[in-house]
Amino acid sequence: MGELHHISATEALRAFRTRQLSPVELTEAVIARAERTEPVVNALGHRFFDEALRQAERAERRYAGEDGPPRPLEGLPTVVKEDEPVAGQPWTQGSLNHRDLVATHTSVYARRLIDAGAIVHARSTASEFATAAFTHSALWGVTRNPWNPDVSPGGSSGGSAAALAAGSTVLASGSDTAGSIRVPASFTGVVGFKPPHGRVPVDPPFHLDGYVHSGVLARTVADAALLQNVVAGPHAGDVGSLRPRYVLPDPAGRGDGLEGVRIGLSEDLGDWAVDPEVRRNTRRFAERLRAAGATVEEVELHVPRAQVMRAAAIHFHHGFAGAVAAEGRRPGARLTPYAKAFVRWAATASAGATVLDGLAIESDLHAPVGALFERFDALVCPTAATRGLVAGEDYVDHGPEVDGERLGHYLESLLALPFNIMNRCPVLAVPSGFARNGVPTGVQIVGRPFDDATPFRIGSAVEQQQDWPEVALPRTTAQPGATGAPA
Question: Which GO MF terms does the UniProt record name (predicted)?
Answer without folding.
Answer: transferase activity
